[in-house]
Structure formats: structure tokens, C-alpha cells
């Protein structure tokens, strides 16, 4: 009787924990779109961490749900370890895609960025079409979306 209550409480609390994490990530996106109404955006420092947390959260949530509904066997652990590589590849592909597309994108996920005193420099493009976008910093975590200048790299 007591064990059943603990299991029910754990199932409820684990669902609430996952829901809270997803809601926090969604609130971050909503704040970004509210900031974009004023011509501002979060810096790549925050967006890169957001993307990593989202990918990790989805990966862990799927595996916890899978293992919760089945009895544990050793090959489940092997498949969990082997599934890390395709998920890392998919995450890197998304990260790389955001890094090379043009500035029409309002989400500044970027692999190659530099924060100077008063500006953020985002390197966009790929191979022959590389260029730098210079954005003003409002504070260390928020930048202006308007591109000050673009410097093409030959």
C-alpha cells in the first residue's frame, strides 16, 4: 500500500518536473519574441545554452518514458548509449544550420561569435560566402537585432 503511494507520487512529480522544464524553455522563446517587438534579441550565449538544454531534455525525457514503461534489460542500456551518437549528430546539424543561414533568422544560434566591449560579432555563411554581422549590445545577454555593419571575408 505504501509502495503504491510512493510510485503514484513519483509518477505525478516526474510529469510535473518535465512539464516545468518545457514551460521554462517555452517562456524563454516567448520572451525572445516579445524582445523582438522592440528590436532586441537574446545573445548567442543564451540561445546556444537553450538549444543544448532542449536537446538534452527531449533526449532524456524520451529515454525515461521508454525505460519507465518496460522492465530493465541490459541491452536497453546499450541502445541508450548507442543512441547518443545519432542525437548528437542531429543536434550538431541543427546548430550548424542556424550558424550558416542569413540574418533573416531572428534566433541568433551561432557557433562562431565574439563579444567585444559594446558589440556582438556573428560569423555567418559557409566557405566562400562567409561574412560577419556586427550587433550592438544592450547588456551582456541582450543585443539589438539591427545589423550595424557587415564585413565580408574573402
Biggest β-sheet, characterized? Answer: 6 strands, antiparallel
CA-atom Rg in angstroms = 20 Å
SS elements, strand count = 6
Q: What is the average of the pLDDT values?
A: 81
Class of secondary structure makeup: alpha+beta
What would your notes on this structure say?
The structure is a single chain. With 154 residues, the protein is α+β, with helices and mostly antiparallel strands. The chain has one domain. It has three helices and six strands. Strands 1, 2, 3, 4, 5 and 6 form a six-stranded antiparallel sheet that branches. The radius of gyration is 20 Å and the shape is elongated. The chain starts with a helix and ends with a strand. The model has no long low-confidence stretch (mean pLDDT 81).
Brief overview:
The chain has 154 residues and is an alpha+beta fold. The chain has 3 helices and 6 strands.
Structural topology:
Layout (H helix, E strand, L loop, with lengths): L1 H36 L2 E3 L1 H25 L5 H27 L12 E3 L3 E6 L6 E9 L2 E3 L4 E4 L2
Helix pairs in contact: 1-2, 2-3
Amino acid at each position: 500500500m505504501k509502495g503504491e503511494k510512493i510510485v503514484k507520487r513519483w509518477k505525478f512529480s516526474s510529469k510535473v518536473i518535465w512539464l516545468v522544464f518545457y514551460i521554462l524553455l517555452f517562456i524563454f522563446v516567448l520572451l525572445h519574441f516579445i524582445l523582438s517587438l522592440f528590436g532586441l534579441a537574446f545573445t548567442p550565449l543564451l540561445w546556444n545554452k537553450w538549444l543544448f538544454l532542449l536537446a538534452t531534455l527531449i533526449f532524456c525525457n524520451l529515454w525515461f518514458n521508454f525505460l519507465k514503461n518496460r522492465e530493465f534489460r541490459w541491452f536497453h542500456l546499450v541502445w541508450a548509449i548507442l543512441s547518443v551518437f545519432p542525437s548528437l549528430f542531429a543536434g550538431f546539424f541543427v546548430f550548424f544550420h542556424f550558424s550558416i543561414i542569413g540574418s533573416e533568422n531572428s534566433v541568433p544560434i551561432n557557433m562562431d561569435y565574439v563579444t567585444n566591449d559594446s558589440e556582438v560579432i556573428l560569423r555567418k555563411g559557409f566557405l566562400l560566402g562567409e561574412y560577419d554581422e556586427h550587433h550592438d549590445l544592450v547588456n551582456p545577454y541582450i543585443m539589438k537585432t539591427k545589423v550595424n555593419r557587415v564585413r565580408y571575408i574573402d
